[in-house]
């Protein structure tokens, strides 16, 4: 998004497009399902203890672990530990608030994070996400069982086209995908469940749709879920508007 040269922008988009293709991402579905199963296990444990559940935290953990599976062939471990490892999530929230202000008040940005000294001293708030990504890359490169994940595709692109793609571009894309990708997945999940919980009749209607389709798997596949009309309508509405106002 930061590339202002139209031609260079098109080339950079081509460099990473294959990694984001649905045909490629869907290959990691089985491993994503493992993260979903772990989330369900954690929520059951909290329910049995009658402990309040903060969905925003747990959906963040799920989002980061799923991104880890797709990018690095392994989860970050947020769900396993049940905590914000390295303060990555908390840091991301602060950075989002900062960006909201800096986008309108550029003097603030030039005086703070836009100051070259801040980056030279490695005091950037994005350092947490960068460090998390860097550790994941190092672990991934040492993993003999790594799959053909996003990183593998981009590394192949870099090796075959060094004149069209730079190493720093690869690292930047990985960092962006971890931060922005996890935030997007988490926000969508939170919007969906928040609105569904407000309307229990929609949850019941969704359960009837799943039962009518004869789906009994613990985690429904993407292919099967894509055929559930009411579910897809809820998912589409959640991120952009209020389900309760649109689904009636």
The CATH class name of the largest domain reads: Mainly Alpha
Number of domains: 2
Structural class, please?
Answer: mainly alpha
Provide the gyration radius in Å: 20 Å
Average pLDDT figure: 84
What is the beta-strand fraction? under 5%
- Helix percent reads over 70%
The unreliable regions are: 242-248
CATH topology of the largest domain: Cytochrome p450
Instruction: Supply the CATH architecture of the largest domain.
Output: Orthogonal Bundle
* C-alpha end-to-end distance: 37 Å
Order of helices and strands: HHHHHHHHHHHHHHH
In one word, what is the shape?
globular
Oligomer designation: single chain
Question: What's the CATH superfamily of the largest domain, by name?
Answer: Cytochrome P450
Main pleated sheet: none
DSSP helix count?
15
What's the total count of β strands? 0
């Amino acid at each position: 998004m930061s590339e202002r040269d139209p031609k260079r922008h098109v080339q950079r988009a081509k460099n990473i497009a294959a990694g984001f293709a649905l045909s490629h991402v869907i290959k990691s579905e089985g491993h994503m399902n493992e993260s979903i199963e772990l989330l369900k296990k954690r929520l059951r444990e909290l329910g049995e203890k009658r402990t309040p559940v903060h969905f925003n935290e747990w959906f963040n953990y799920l989002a980061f672990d799923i991104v880890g599976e797709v990018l690095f062939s392994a989860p970050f471990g947020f769900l396993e530990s049940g905590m914000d490892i390295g303060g990555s999530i908390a840091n991301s929230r602060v950075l989002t608030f900062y960006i909201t202000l800096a986008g309108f008040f550029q003097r603030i940005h030039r005086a703070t994070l836009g100051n070259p000294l801040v980056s030279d001293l490695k005091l950037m708030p994005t350092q947490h996400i960068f460090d998390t990504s860097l550790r994941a890359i190092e672990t991934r490169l040492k993993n003999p069982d790594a799959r053909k994940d996003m990183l593998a595709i981009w590394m192949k692109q870099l090796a075959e086209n060094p004149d069209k793609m730079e190493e720093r571009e690869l690292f930047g894309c990985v960092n962006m995908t971890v931060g922005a990708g996890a935030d997007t997945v988490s926000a969508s999940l939170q919007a969906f469940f928040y609105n569904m919980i407000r309307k229990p009749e929609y949850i019941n209607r969704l359960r009837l749709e799943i039962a009518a389709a004869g789906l009994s798997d613990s985690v429904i596949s993407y292919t099967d879920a894509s055929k559930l009309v009411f579910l897809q309508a809820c998912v589409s509405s959640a991120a952009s508007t209020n389900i309760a106002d649109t689904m009636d």
